[in-house]
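Bumping my old thread because nobody answered last time. Still need a sequence for this structure:
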């Protein structure tokens, strides 16, 4: 995995391909600025997060970005 500025995504992808490595995918993602340690959450809050993550089972959901550390 390579991380780059969003504006450079295509440029980096093409440069890597030109130098040999096969680029299978290039996409924008989300990197949490202030990740939260799940151990710091109250049990009720952690349960709420776990219930929310069940949305990933929905066929219409492609990506789920989460702000938890670890």
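Sorry it took so long. Here it is:
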């Amino acid at each position: 995995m390579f991380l780059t500025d969003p504006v450079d995504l295509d440029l980096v992808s093409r440069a890597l391909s030109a130098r040999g490595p096969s680029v299978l995918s290039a996409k924008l993602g989300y990197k949490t600025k202030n990740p939260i340690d799940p151990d710091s959450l109250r049990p009720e809050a952690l349960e709420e997060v776990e219930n929310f993550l069940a949305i990933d089972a929905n066929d219409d959901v492609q990506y789920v970005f989460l702000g938890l550390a670890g």
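The radius of gyration is 17 Å. Let me know if any region looks off to you.
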